[in-house]
Amino acid sequence: NWTTANVVDEQVALVREQVGKKRAICGLSGGVDSAVAAALVQKAIGSQLTCVYVDHGLMRKGETEQVEKDFVAATGVQLRVVDAQERFLAALAGVSDPEQKRKIIGREFIRVFEQAQAEIVAEAGAEGEDVAFLVQGTLYPDVVESGGGAGTANIKSHHNVGGLPDDIEFALVEPLRKLFKDEVRMVGQQLGLPDEIVQRQPFPGPGLGIRIVGEVTRDRLDLLREADAIAREELTAAGLDREIWQCPVVLLADVRSVGVQGDGRTYGHPIVLRPVSSEDAMTADWTRMPYDVLAKISTRITNEVADVNRVVLDVTSKPPGTIEWE
Ligand code: XMP
C-alpha cells in the first residue's frame, strides 16, 4: 500500500543497491524536487553524496543564498556551489528558440557536473574511484511531457530529461520518477525537511532563461529579476503563496509597445504575469486573483523597472497554454 514511509524505505533500498560503495553527486536547483531527491539519497548513502548547486545566472533574486543557507541547515549535506554564469550566458548568446535554449541549458548543466565530478575525485585523492552517479529530482510529469511516456508527444524538453545531451556518462539516480508533486512534498515531510523547502512553489531548472521570450542577455535577466522580485513580494504580502501554485513572470523581450510616463513617450517591453492554480502541473487554470493585488504589482513594476511600460495578465488555462511560456 502507498504510504510515504513505504516509498522512502523502498527508494532508499533501491538507491543503496544501485550506487553501492561509489560516490554520487546531486544537482540541487533550490526547488522542491531536487531537495527531496537529495535528502532521500543522503538517507541512503550518507557522505558518499555531494550536492552541486550550479549558479547559472538564471536564478531569481536571493535564490542562491537561500539554497546555501536553508538546505545545508536542514540536511547538513556536503554542498559545492559552482559559479557558471559566464558559461551559460555565452552558450545562450544569440539563441531565441525555446527548445534550443532548453537543450543548451540541459547540456551545460551536465558539463558543469562533469567538472565537479573530476574535482571531487581529485580532491579525495581517490585514484580510480568513480563518481559515476548523478541524482536528479525528475518527476513523473517531467518524463511524460518530455515525451518519455508511452504514446506521448514531446511538449517541451524538461532540462533533466529531454534536455540531456546524448554523450552523458553518468548513470542517473531518479528516486522520484514515479511521483507527482504533491506526493514529493509528502515524501519531503516524511524525511523531515522544513516547510520552507517542502512547500516552495515550483521553479523550473532552466530558470529565467525560459521566461525571456527572445535572446537571453545579462541586462534582460537583471530586468526580469527585478520584476519577478516585486511580484513575489506582493503575492507573499497578500497571503497568496499557498493559493497560487506558481506565478511565472515573463519578459517579452522581442516586443515593444508605446507608452507615456511623466512628460514623455516610452517604447518599452511588456511583462506578463502568469498566476496559475494546479494540482500536479499537468493541467492548470489561471488564478482569479484580487484586482487590487494585480494593480499594485503593475504599478510597482512599471514605476520601478526601467524599460518596462506595460504589465499584462495571462488568462489562459493549461491546456491550451502550458504554465511556462517556453
Ligand atoms: P509547463 O510549462 O510544461 O510546466 O506547463 C509544468 C511545470 O513544470 C515546470 N517546468 C520545469 N521544471 N525543468 C524543471 O525542473 C524544466 O525544464 C521545466 N519546464 C517546466 C514548470 O515551472 C511547471 O511547474
Automatic annotation (TrEMBL):
Q: Which GO terms describe its molecular function?
A: ATP binding; GMP synthase activity
Highest taxon, organism lineage: Bacteria
Key word Ligase present: yes
GMPS ATP-PPase domain: residues covered: 2-200
Which residues of this UniProt protein bind ATP?
29-35
Annotated Gene Ontology cellular components are: cytosol
Keyword list (alphabetical) reads: ATP-binding, Glutamine amidotransferase, GMP biosynthesis, Ligase, Nucleotide-binding, Purine biosynthesis
> EC number(s) per UniProt?
6.3.5.2
What pathway is it annotated to? Purine metabolism; GMP biosynthesis; GMP from XMP (L-Gln route): step 1/1
Catalysed transformations (reactions): XMP + L-glutamine + ATP + H2O = GMP + L-glutamate + AMP + diphosphate + 2 H(+)
Keyword Ligase included in the entry's annotation = yes
Q: What class of enzyme is it?
A: ligase
Indicate the quaternary assembly. Answer: Homodimer.
- General function of this protein: Catalyzes the synthesis of GMP from XMP.
| Stated name of the protein | GMP synthase [glutamine-hydrolyzing]
